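Hi L., both proteins are below.
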Amino acid sequence: MWLCLVALVGLYYLLRWYRERQVVSHLQDKYVFITGCDSGFGNLLARQLDMRGLRVLAACLTEKGAEQLRNKTSGRLETVVLDVTSTESIAAATQWVKERVGDRGLWGLVNNAGIASPCAPIEWLSKQDFVKILDVNLLGVIEVTLSMLPLVKKARGRVVNLSSILGRVAFPGGGYCVSKYGLEAFSDSLRRELLYFGVKVAIIEPGFFNTDLVKSDSFLMSPKELWNQASSEIKEAYGEEFLASYLKFLTAVPQKSSKDLFMVTDCMEHALIACHPRTRYSAGWDAKLFYIPLSYLPTSLVDAIVEWTSIKPAKAYEANR
């Protein structure tokens, strides 16, 4: 009995391995548009796909980032400046893409641009602090996708959305988890609607990686700035020791994060060029071995684990007595 079960599981993974090795043809004729290419995953993916021979259309937030990327790639790669929070900028970028892809359409749309700050406990934040993250991580993705979708449908191509394991398990820390949960839902709805048009939608769920997202000054300093603006009641409830520990935790995130960004960009590449891409990709050993399994546990157990591992506010122990 057990031998048969092991054989069936082995056969399943062998067949999956074979299917996932099949690559679409004529890659050199396919256009891929990537947002957030100034640094991190987007920058690496643009260079990776360019080396593979695809025609990369890389969107950067700044002209400086675009110029630096062009200096590291072939003449095939083209860049455009894009602010995903600006409707006018998105419309201009879409027209720019249309002029390049023509009747072939857009094979791949990679929504990679994202921010992680302001990052702090929820009651330190204002509505505008949530809006700032949602504008980039969720609403920006939605608007870019809606704008580019006719081109993707024309090519019967792919949409690849960069989510996070924090779109599967919510931890304390403000609007980032909210934006990624929203992105997961948007991606699932989009995938199920576009099945009828031959378009595939994939979600990338990385663990923690050492990118500018967790090294930027805004990420590391936003809790301090929000603390200075907080009410006396909040400061009394949390205490200076909580703030110091929280800042120490954020400062340690880059050192504790994986430096192998290829673990993420290889998933993105597979989602774009494989004949049979996966629906979801978990990137990073922390995602595969801890966060994704954690997401399947009972909510009460996850709550207990988070409570046990989180930094405690000054008044927390009095409240629990």
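That was the first. Here is the second:
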Amino acid sequence: MSSESPSTGGLTPDQLATFWRDGYLIIPNALPPTTVQALLDETHALLEGFPLSEHPMTRFSTGEKSAHVGDDYFLSSGDKVRFFFEEDAFDASGQLTKPKERAINKIGHSLHALSPPFASLLDPALNPDLLGAGTSTGSVAAGRKESHPAAIARALGFKDPRCLQSMVICKQPEIGGAVPPHQDSTFLYTDPPSAVGFWYALEDATAENGCLSFLPGSHRWAPVRQRFVRAKTGGTDFMDNDGPRFPPGEEYGEEEGKSEDGKYEMGEVKAGSLVLIHGNLLHKSEKNLSQKGRIIYTFHVIEGEGTKYDERNWLQPPADGFTRLYRDS
């Protein structure tokens, strides 16, 4: 991932400049309404279809109230489709207080490989790079028919982008938990850091229902100080990062006077929007106390060439490796 790479589709020069300046980029109408509806239909089918009788009732914690989840159901979910409950979906005795489809925090973490509607976003035929197709130097003209995410990754300078940790996050009405400030590279660490989040709104995300907020420019000066790893004693834990804390580049480095408690910018978006998030960028979301949900789909991309994916990371690659974004023409 490099800010020096020329655009050959995926993103315009202005969009690239915004991403490298702010650490995030909002792309309205990245998905057409028909695709948004298909992904929502798949989400609702998954929520309604999973059996409670076979579920260990694993809750997903953002770390706001209790320790992050660390049981085997979570740790072995990297190549599966599994369901994780909101912490506040249970009463004091451990009983669900909501119907199961209104109690799930997220579905993950291999929708991009195992769910055809979600996998279609990585398919050049079903989600093509229209920007590249419309230029003389774009992916189609250059003999590379690419998906929109692949073209974006190429514009960002990825040499071998790999997709991992795909999930639907529901942000349920009334109980959708807040997510404190964090950096995605804490959870998907490569040496050097390379993660970028692709975050698609499937419903409008507003201040009322817990949209994202960002600390603009923090990707340039906020180091990845900690790592979310598999604990030696079982489960998960945070450890101090003993490796590189920034991607390569002179534009990165800690700066005096910069505060991780700075002014966050709210990112309200309409359904169909795509938000790109640099792995070092500090971002968060508030609790959803409204009557309206906020379903989104997200996956992450890391550099597969010239980096090391750490064996201590909570999510480990399947036998055939993480999914490639670049495909043969």
